[in-house]
Amino acid sequence: MRTFIALELPDGFAADVAALARQLSAEVEGRFMRRESYHLTLAFLGDVDEAELASAIAAIEDTCPSCSPVPLRADGLGKFGRSSDATLWLGIAPNPELDDLVYPLRDALVDRGVDFDEKTFKAHITLARRAKLPSGSLPPLEFPRDDSATCITVFKSTLEKDGAVYKPLFRYDLEAHRALPL
Ligand code: ATP
Ligand code: MG
């Protein structure tokens, strides 16, 4: 199964991201993500079997007891790829809590022999795919209010015709420091 590890967004922050995406969709053509799909990817594992999934969960349980909720502060829009066919995202400002989560987690995955995409980490929330970005400037936009993320989740991703569908397989609460029911 195709999997990744991500932070979930609290409802208020997700609502603000959705409002921002709505403003953008007036100016930008593209396949905008469903609000319930918003997330911040920490590690993309790709295809794993049950044993690797168990190891990934163990890596989270190794790492997260000493981690804290992660501040979420939007720091601008960005893109991967060409302007005519871009992945459009909202950047999240780096912060110590995020660094103290993502790098130890990636180390724990390595220690447990779980492969993941090792591209340099860039904290972002994907807003749209196949976006055609205008050459001029965008109108003034209202960015999300600062918040913090408390839930780290292993998602299963099923690729469907009109975009991926994500299903949580394991959740851990960075505040209560325990696994959460699904
Ligand atoms: P689609 O591929 O249909 O556009 P998607 O990219 O949302 O949908 P996935 O490809 O399963 O769904 O990706 C899940 C998450 O992992 C997304 O946040 C995606 O940006 C990220 N991701 C996907 N592939 C990689 C990769 N090779 N390296 C790092 N992150 C990745
Ligand atoms: Mg993809």
Explained architecture:
- By secondary structure, the chain is α+β, with helices and mostly antiparallel strands.
- The chain has helices at residues 11-25, 50-63, 96-111; strands at residues 2-7, 29-32, 40-47, 70-72, 74-80, 86-92, 124-132, 147-149, 151-160, 163-173, 178-180.
- Helix 2 (50-63) crosses helix 3 (96-111).
- The structure holds adenosine-5'-triphosphate and magnesium ion.
- Residues 2, 4, 41, 44, 117, 119, 126, 129, 157, 159, 163-164 line the site of adenosine-5'-triphosphate.
Please outline the major beta sheet.
5 strands, antiparallel
Strand line-up in the sheet with most strands: 3-1-9-10-11
What is the H-and-E element order?
Answer: EHEEHEEEHEEEEE
| Small molecules (ligands, ions, cofactors) in the structure | adenosine-5'-triphosphate, magnesium ion
> Which stretches of 5+ consecutive residues score pLDDT under 50?
none
Mean pLDDT: 97
Number of helices: 3
Backbone shape: globular
Structural class, by secondary structure, is alpha+beta
Counting DSSP E segments of at least 2 residues, the number of strands comes to 11
Helix proportion: 10-25%
**For the CA atoms, what is the radius of gyration?**
16 Å
GO molecular function, one term: 2',3'-cyclic-nucleotide 3'-phosphodiesterase activity
EC number: 3.1.4.58
InterPro entries: Cyclic_Pdiesterase (IPR009097), Phosphoesterase_HXTX (IPR014051), RNA_CPDase (IPR004175)
Keywords: Hydrolase
Summarize the structure.
Residues 8-82 form the Phosphoesterase HXTX domain. This protein is an alpha+beta fold.
